[in-house]
Write a structure and sequence with these properties.
It is a single chain. With about 230 residues, the chain is of the alpha/beta class. It has one domain: Carbamate kinase, CATH 3.40.1160. Helices cover about 40% and strands about 20% of the residues. Helix 1 packs across helix 3, helix 5 packs parallel to helix 7 and helix 6 packs antiparallel against helix 7. The longest helix has 25 residues. The radius of gyration is 17 Å and the shape is globular. Bound molecules: uridine-5'-diphosphate. The site of uridine-5'-diphosphate has 22 residues, from helix 2, helix 3 and helix 5. The site of uridine-5'-diphosphate (UDP) has 22 residues, from helix 2, helix 3 and helix 5.
Length: about 230
C-alpha cells in the first residue's frame, strides 16, 4: 500500500444525489469505499463538509457568523447517516465534534482521537474548525496534521487540477503535480488557499481526486490519480 494513514475530506455534495442533499445510496457508497480501505489495513480519518446544507460563498448575505455556524453544524446531516452505514457494515467508527453540537458525540480530544486510530477505528470529524470564516478544507488540513496523516485526500467533483476550466476549454490539461506556491498564486477554486498555506508550512501533500467508486482504493494502492499539491 502506498499510504497507511490518510485523512479524506468529503465535501457535503458527495452525500447528495438526485435532488436530495443526503442520498442513502451515496452514503452507502461512501461507507463501502471506506470499508475497503479498512480491510486494506489503512488508518482512516475523515472530515465531512456541510456545504450541502449551508455555504457562505453561495449565500453571501445575512449574518456571516450565523451562516457559517449553520454550515459547520450542517456536517452532522452527513455524518449521522455515514456513522450508521459504517456500523451496519461492521466497521468500527468514532465521531468527534470540534465544538459542542448537542449530540452524543464527544468533543475533539487529541489523546482520545489517537487512541481510536490506534484501535483501527475510522475517525470522523464534524463541525469544521469550530470557527466561522474558515472552511472544511482548512479543517481537513488541520485534522490531517493532528492525526499525522501522510496525505490529505480531497475527494471532489473533478478529477484533479486543470490548466484551464475543462468544461469551457477542450485543450485544458490535467496537472499531475503542482507546488503549494503556484496553486496559491493561481487562486484556483479547487481548494481553499488557507488550507494550502497550512499544508505548505507543514509539508503535508494534498491529493485531489474525483469522488467515484473505486478511486480511493486505487489511490491507496499507488495509482497516480488526480493531482498532487506538494
Ligand atoms: N464553515 C465555517 N468554518 C469551518 C468550516 C465551515 O464557518 O471551519 C462554514 C462556512 O460557512 C462554509 C460552510 O461552513 O461555507 C460549509 O463549509 P465548506 O464550504 O467548506 O463545505 P464543503 O464544501 O466541504 O461541504
Amino acid at each position: 500500500m502506498k499510504y497507511k494513514n490518510v485523512l479524506i475530506k468529503f465535501s457535503g455534495e458527495a452525500f447528495g444525489d438526485k435532488g436530495k442533499p443526503v442520498n442513502k445510496r451515496q452514503v452507502k457508497l461512501i461507507a463501502s469505499e471506506i470499508k475497503e480501505l479498512v480491510k486494506a489495513k489503512v488508518k482512516v480519518a475523515i472530515v465531512c463538509g456541510g456545504g450541502n446544507v449551508s455555504r457562505w460563498k453561495d449565500v453571501k448575505k445575512g449574518d456571516r457568523v450565523e451562516v457559517d455556524l449553520k454550515g459547520m453544524k450542517g456536517g452532522l446531516k452527513n455524518v449521522i447517516p455515514l456513522e450508521k452505514a459504517l456500523k451496519e457494515m461492521k466497521v468500527k467508527v468514532q465521531v468527534f465534534t470540534s465544538f459542542s453540537l448537542n449530540t452524543k458525540y464527544p468533543k475533539f480530544n487529541y489523546s482520545k482521537v489517537t487512541k481510536a486510530l490506534k484501535e483501527n477505528k475510522v475517525v470522523i470529524f464534524v463541525g469544521g474548525t469550530g470557527h466561522p470564516f474558515f472552511t472544511h478544507d482548512t479543517a481537513a488540513c488541520l485534522r490531517a496534521l493532528e492525526t499525522n496523516a501522510e496525505v490529505l485526500i480531497k475527494a471532489t467533483k473533478v478529477d484533479g487540477i486543470y490548466s484551464a476550466d475543462p468544461t469551457l476549454n477542450k485543450r485544458a490539461k490535467r496537472i499531475k503535480s503542482i507546488s503549494y506556491k503556484s496553486i496559491i498564486a493561481k487562486e484556483l477554486k479547487i481548494i481553499d488557499s488557507v488550507a494550502v498555506a497550512l499544508a505548505q508550512e507543514n509539508k503535508l501533500p494534498i491529493r485531489i481526486i474525483k469522488w467515484q467508486e473505486g478511486n480511493l482504493i486505487k489511490l491507496i494502492k499507488g495509482k497516480n490519480l488526480g493531482s498532487i499539491i506538494k
